[in-house]
Structure formats: structure tokens, C-alpha cells
Amino acid sequence: MEFDFAEEQPKFLMLMYGLIAFVAVVGGLLLLLDVVPAWFARRREAQLVAASVSGAPLPRRRKQGEGLFALFFLLPTLLLLTVGLVVPAIRTTLLSLMDGSSTNWVGLRNYGWMFSDDSIVRVLINTLVWVVLVPLVATGFGLIYAVLVDKARFEAVAKSLIFLPMAISFVGASIIWKFVYAYRGEGDQIGLLNQIVVSVGGEPKQWLLESPLNTLLLIVIMVWIQAGFAMVVLSAAIKAIPGDIVEAARLDGVSPWQMFWRITMPSIRPALIVVVVTLTIATLKVFDIVRTSTNGNYDTSVIASEMYNQAFRYGQNGQGSALAVFLFILVIPVVIYQIRNLRQQREG
User: Fold this and answer.
1) Which of 22, 182, 251, 310 could lock 191 by a disulfide, CB 3.0 to 4.6 Å apart?
2) CA distance 281 to 332
3) pLDDT on residue 60
4) CA gap 305, 20 in Å, rounded
5) Dihedral sign for Cα atoms in the order 332, 337, 340, 341
6) Is residue 174 helix, strand or coil?
7) What does DSSP assign to residue 230?
8) Residue 105, SS3 per DSSP
9) What predicted TM-score, i.e. pTM, was given to this entire model?
């Protein structure tokens, strides 16, 4: 197959224009962030020098000028948030009130469809199962592992082994586990799970086709990835427990079980909350694992994957947007709880 540069020239031009625009925007912002503060600094220095020479009182900073100066630095962030978050959120909300072609207003009909269609109710139930199991199981495994390997001889190596899946993308992890769940008739099995089943005298199965077991098997992938994150955060929290508290508890003759529940758990409670909240938000938005493993078929779809299917595969923009808005509404209470928790920690 020969490469025709003339035929591909428009694509290269688009790529070049994109690079030029990126350099211009980023370079311009960096230049402004360097030039403007330097100009204000030189101006302030000149005022101080003039005041010291003339013996006049030092000029005071004007609060109005400081406000404008702060606004200048906030403008790029506000602009990006508006273009990348606020405008799409408003547009998606409006689309959720329209029909599939985004031409006629239908009010809350798309939201009524969400809770009346049996297939979408199954999607909501699957999402609930994900949100309940993944944060609890991943945090539990991470906590147990962090406690067991704490101050062990090969602690660094042991932690590296469980943290390694965090370096793999969700798509890559899903492909790996699809080989684990692979099924090949009645002969030799290439899937690890089926090979184990056959070796103990069982019958191989197409695991990802059996509902609701397939949803639980997909949850295993998420837990496998996120347990390393939970372990790292909780291990750091355990090491931050003051040594005098631990030593005093040991002098009092507490058992390891009492040490865990009366000393370790209360001390790492803020870290536990952070881990659970972070995993909950990540689980609500899970898409890659379901898309790569089953494409949402066989009753494994969740809100994010169904949102994609409705909007981009079936052409139902209104229903897809309604699912997106509903997902956003589900995330909001979790975020608010985390913000309040962080404020309480600062005040405490």
C-alpha cells in the first residue's frame, strides 16, 4: 500500500494548524503570566524607590487593583471552565428535554422513560450494584493489605505488586481479564478461569454471557485496578499514626484485633472517607470496562455505557442526555459530602 502525500495533505494541514493554534494559545498565556506580573513588580519597586528618595510615605496597595490583578489570573481558568463544563452542562440539560432528533420539546418524557423502561431499570440496578460493591470491596482489600504488609520485611515489593494494575488503563485491564474469562468449547481452555474449572472436574462456561454473574465478574476488574490506590492512601494514613499512641496501647496489653478497631480505624477514618468517595465517583462514571468487555450486552450495561449507546449508536440524543444529567445528579451529593468533610477537617 503506497502512501500518497498529496491525498493526505489536507490532514497534515489540519494537524499543522492545530499545533500552531496550541502553541499560540499556550505561549500567549505563558507570556502574559510572565510579562504582566513582572510589569506590576517593576512598577511597585519604582514607587517604593521614589518614596524612599523623596521621604514620602510608602504607597499603599489598592484593594481594587489587587482584585483586578487576581481576576486577570482567574480569567483563563474561568474561561476554560465555562467552555468545557458550564456550556456543555447547560446544553445537555436542554437536550434532555427534547426528542431524539433534538428538534421538538418533550419536557420530562425522557426522564419518565428512564424509570419505566425495563432495560433502563436494569441499567440503573447494575449501576447501583457497582457503586455499592466496588468502593467497599476495593477499600476493604486495600485496607487489609496495608495492615498486613505494614513494616513487613519486603513491604515495598509487596506494595508494588498490588499497585501495578493502577498503571494499566481500564481498556488494557479489560482485555487482560477477557482472556481470563475466555471460553473455547469443550477442548483445551485458554481462559484461566475455565481451565481452573475444568481441572477440578467442572464444565467450562461463557462467563460474560451469564447474568447477573457477568456484572460481578466485571466488578472484579475494577476492584483489581483500584485496590492498589486504596492500599497506598490507607498505608500512608497508617504510617501517620503517632508512635506514642501505638506504644501506649501496646503497654496496656491490647490485642492486635483491639489495636485495629480502637486505634487504627479511628485514626485513619478521614483517609477511609477520601478513598470511598473517590472510588464512588470513579465507579459512577465507569465506561471503559463495560464497553471493552461486553459492550453493555447481556444485561451488563451501566449508566455511562447506556448514555453512549443511546446518544451515538441509536441516535436518541434526548434519552442519552437524560442519562447524562441523571449521572451528574448522582455525583453531586457525593462531591458535596466530600467538600463538607474537607472543611470540617480544616476547621478541626
Assistant:
1) 182
2) 9
3) 63
4) 35
5) negative
6) helix
7) H
8) strand
9) 0.78
